[in-house]
Specification:
This protein is α/β, with parallel strands linked by helices and 409 residues long. Helices cover 33% and strands 24% of the residues. It contains twelve helices and 17 strands.
Length: 409
Amino acid sequence: MPDDRVDVAIVGGGPAGLALAHSLKMRKVVVRVVTPPATWHATYGVWRDDVEECELGAPLDTLARGVWSQVRVVGRREHRLRRRYLVFDNERLRRSLADGIDVIVDTASSAEHDLDGTTLRMASGGSLRAKLVVDATGNGVLLAHRAGLGRRSNGHGVARHGEGAQTAYGLVLGNSHHVEPDVFTLMDWRPAGGNAAAPATFFYGARFTDGSTLVEETSLYAQPPHNIEDLRKRLALRLGADFTDTARAVERVHIPMGRSLPARTTRVVGFGAAAGYVHPVTGYSVAGSLRAAPRVASAIDTALRRGEHGAGLSQTAWAAVWPEPLLRTRAWHEAGLAALMRLPSHVIGEFFDEFFSLRTELWAGYLRIDTPPEHVRAAMLGLFARADWSLRLRLASAPGGLLRALAAR
């Protein structure tokens, strides 16, 4: 049985936790992952060039379920984006990231700190001693522990109001005529059933190389979250029938959003969605976690070699999870979300028409959580400059929205 003392214990065996474990192992840091048995059911889609330099353990395209050279977006008009999009094969990605990683199949129930390190207590009664503990559970189980291991805060020790979620209802079908072959439909904002007055949702879908087809109705961030059963009805309207009973698989997606970042002073360090890596506008997090893993692993490795321990080691890790410039990027993203949420449903398609008409480097940068803040600001200002006066007034009137960007010029 492996020694019960390690450099880093990672709680959570999803893409974020295993990516960080893989990058730490590459740097010869002794790492162990604690996770209950779990299957990755979600669809992990990414822009290929966002992850092609990541440390994945295998060539990127060997981990793909499908790759598309053309992406389709429909607002009020159609856009064909010449940028490659990739959907991971979840099991291949999991095997590649987990290769050679020590995994304890258990549930971490608490963490006890002393000056030098942390002892994880398991639901099974076992324990694990580590110099550093990372919470990569997605929902931040240890960061929210009642014993004060961490909390999400608005600066006053309480969760802020406005927490909502992105929701989606998806089906995996056999070879279907409902999507265009060889094109990934990222967003189609035309209203399901032609009801332009209903809250805006969009269609997302593609055909994979094995002949199966993903079709999905998605809501961006909403508070309260958009009802998944309503999304099911909207998808049926788009398809002409409800294919749930004959689908190969059903996806019911609920991504919590609108949360404050976790307090970055805790001994348990967050990573991935648990650290707030969910993009405030899009809900994407996997690509950001895959890109961040080498940065955070390198900082932890360097700190361990310097002999850092206890609270000092945790603070070094937190500084790598959220470098100061990326906190400013996060603020700009939240300003963009505030502006987008002010728009009535019938204007959302126009907003995305203007967004995807920007230069590719601008809209692509905005969609990453780790883009320098000045680049995100440039994208927001570029969109404002393109918009007609009606859309400009709506964007500028949002609290904390694009008017702040203009004032900062």
